[in-house]
Amino acid sequence: MIKLSTGANNSVSEKQMEKTEFEKLLEATLRSKFEQGSIVTGDIVRIERDGVLVDVGAKSEAFVPVKELSNMPFDDIHDVVKISDRFEFYILREENENGQLTLSLKRVAQARGWVQLEEIKKHDQTIKAKISAIVKGGVVVDVYGLRGFVPASQLRVKSTTLEDLIGLEIPMKILEADVKHNKLVLSQRLAIQEEKAAQREKILDTLEPGQEISGEIVRIADFGAFVDLGGLDGLLPISEISWERVSHPSDNLKVGEIINTKVLKIDKEKGHISLSLKQMQPDPWREIEDKFQEGQVVSGTVRKMQSFGAFVQIYPGVDALLPTIEMTDQPNVRPEELFQIGQSVKAVIKKFSPKEHKISLSVKNLEVAELLKD
Predict the structure, then answer these.
(1) pTM for this model (two decimals)
(2) How big is the CA angle at 40 (ends 37 and 46), to the nearest 5 degrees?
(3) Alpha-carbon distances of 239 from 12, 66, 182, 232, 323, rounded to whole Å
(4) H/E segment holding residue 189
(5) Domain covering 39-104 assigned CATH 2.40.50.140 in the classification
(6) Residue 77's closest CA among 88, 68, 87, 66?
(7) For position 98, what pLDDT does the model report?
(8) 143 alpha carbon, distance to own chain's centre
(9) Is residue 36 pLDDT above 90, yes or no?
(10) DSSP one-letter code for 337
(11) Where are the domains of the chain?
């Protein structure tokens, strides 16, 4: 009986040993599944003030601290997660003494975001990003669960105040995506340049000389103004701003102003477009064809002085030249010694060629002309 009893005890002992080995295998499997750095799937089961509890199939519910929910600022946890939501989580810490795992939701989103951004940068694609904050030197944008920085020099937004930019979604190109240093730098300027490049060909193919087109003044220089025609800038030379003499383009135009112009020339090879604003106005030289004639006495205002004479406006948009030699019989006299800008002048028309936009005046012959008139 002793032997039988001993055999029975040996049988039980073997089963106990088998169960112990199974438990060891199960525990080893659970440990490998819930190791630090692993990714697990779980359901949100409870939302608390300092974080959320998640069922991931472990011994107890796992915990996600508030700071590990999202990389983006938020005021209410419910704006980020809700009960029964299923996510993938990154294991920050393995089970503590209570058997609870510590998880991170934002690190999974970050990892996926970086993968997407690296792929986008590789293929030089354009993405949309929302401005979330104004900081020194630029703005912060939200993109793929990450925060990126756009330097002010890379922005091309129009707003009266920086605060108006918050929430604005704009196209972006990735300048730098450094996962190791968590650095993401973007550019709106490059994205817009690409858009304009695509629009440029379309504009050049549709425009013709003589065509009227509206655009926005984007830059003013001494020699003229640049007008955005919807993706391609056209040049409005100072000589084509007005029929009247223009000292500087800024005297007649303002950046941001919308104007209607006429296309003068198109160079498709270079992508250059020359515009005219004065061609949209009546030609004063045509208007004066029947108003003036040679030998006629006229009155005008000195608009500009040159070493060879003075330009006198005798009709809106029409300047006639009063040569120095026609000012006086006195030798070696400079124009500025006889006339000043803004001074009223009475003279006689010596030569009249409106089709060539040329009128020559004389003060020397004024007395003779008035006598003949009388």
Answers:
(1) 0.47
(2) 115
(3) 109, 65, 53, 21, 22
(4) helix 188-206
(5) yes
(6) 66
(7) 79
(8) 17
(9) no
(10) G
(11) 39-104, 110-192, 207-280, 288-373
Tell me: the pLDDT tens digits for 102-138? 998 888 888 888 888 888 988 889 999 889 888 888 8
Judge whether 286 and 303 are in contact, CB under 8 Å: no
For residue 258, which amino acid is it?
I
For the chain, what's the residue count? 374
Q: How far is residue 237 CA from its own chain's centroid?
A: 25
163 touches 134 (CB < 8 A): yes
Three-state DSSP class for 85? Answer: coil
For residue 246, give both structure tokens: 């223009």
Answer whether 40's CB lies under 8 Å from 33's CB. yes
Backbone angles phi, psi at 137, to 5 degrees: 90, 5
Does 3 score more than 50 pLDDT? no
Enumerate the β-bridge partners of residue 164. Answer: none
CA 5 – CA 31 distance, rounded (Å): 39
Q: Which fold has domain 110-192?
A: OB fold (Dihydrolipoamide Acetyltransferase, E2P) (2.40.50)
State the architecture of 207-280 in CATH terms. Beta Barrel (2.40)
- Domains 110-192 and 288-373 agree in fold: yes
What pLDDT sits at residue 158?
66
User: Is the separation of the CB atoms in 129 and 142 below 8 Å?
Assistant: yes
Measured between alpha carbons, how far is 357 from 283 in angstroms, rounded to an integer? 11
pLDDT digits (tens, 9 = 90+) for 200-239: 778 888 888 999 999 999 889 999 999 988 778 899 999 9
Q: Is 313 exposed, middle or buried (0-12, 13-18, 19+ CB in 10 A)?
A: middle
**CATH (one of 2.40.50.140, 2.30.110.10, 1.10.8.60, 3.40.50.1980) for 288-373:** 2.40.50.140
Whole-number Å distance between alpha carbons of 131 and 303: 51
Tell me the pLDDT band of 22, cut-offs 50, 70 and 90: low
Is residue 216 within a helix (H) or strand (E), and if so which, with residue range?
strand 212-221
